[in-house]
Amino acid sequence: MSTQTHLAFASTAVGITSVIQVPTLSPGPDEVMVKVAFSAVIPLDTYIADYGRIVNGEYPLVLGFNLSGVVEAVGPGVGGLQTGDKVCGFATAGSKGKGLQERAIIHSSACAKLPDDYSLEAAATIPDNFVTAFYTLFDCLELTPPTFPVSAPPPHAETPILVYGAGATSGQYAVQLLALAGYKRVIATASPRHHSYLKSLGAAHVIDYSADDMLEKILLAAGKKLQFVLDCISAEGTLKSISNVVSSDGVVAMLLPVTEGTTHVAGKDAQMWMELPVDRNPFPDSVKLIGVRTLLYQQNEYLRDNLMPNILPRLLEEGIIKPNRVRLFDQGSLQDRCQDAFDVVRNGQVSGEKVIVKVSSE
């Protein structure tokens, strides 16, 4: 057993988080050890910390699903990564790979090598949203997976595709990937402050989701009811709106969990569902409703072997994928930085940006 330890920000019981010492492990087969520079805080982190979601009784549980940093050691069988490489990673399971700790052990298939001059702050915004968008579009919605650079239009290049809540960080990646893959009629809903940016990413139409005539504008832009919809908010209210514009044989992908009400931020007393209850489902049976569980993306062998190790590094090297805007927490102790970051996320004080925590003090 390792006698070395390092600092980590962890949930130690429901509603309790603190910086603790955890063992510094060595990487096993196909694993790398990363000295973590930055990590993101996402709503799922707050659900775990505040309500004990998906903990399964395992405390303490280190938090943080994204990380960026430098490879310090590689385990047996690792190819394509070596000590000193700058990487970003997506921690899909267990505490040893989570981002809010000074050293993380992560499977090499969940790591992407970064260009030497790439910002580690920016890189920490990428993994979960990039994986979520790619997995949702090209697995869950079954759009044709692109091979970059795209040499021919995809089968649904001229089919209107709605990204609802595209100002969300996951929505920004969805718009980018659709445009890069050759889809010409991406319709995005977002608050007005995000409109120009989403158009620059490739959205053909951007509609104010708070406008009284939003649904009419969506149908006008599409010319008909929609066959493909991605809901990046996944609240009862957004699903109800989408039910008015999706075709009877359409497909709707919703990012889980679904929250009660109209916002993706779930308060203490709000309900959340990993499966939408029948009495909360506004869609007819003919509409295919897909709940997206991004943490399961590696069940798709092609995505496991290619998405982070090959596809993302190529897009970053060519400079054709843009990271989210960063809201950085780098002042005070690790406890202070993490606590402040969690507060802004749990209180819904984030829009179109990724909350990033500086982890390493060195």
Automatic annotation (TrEMBL):
Top-level taxon of origin: Eukaryota
GO molecular function: oxidoreductase activity, acting on NAD(P)H
Domain Enoyl reductase (ER): 15-357
UniProt xrefs under Gene3D superfamilies: Medium-chain alcohol dehydrogenases, catalytic domain, NAD(P)-binding Rossmann-like Domain
Protein name as it appears in the record: Chaperonin 10-like protein
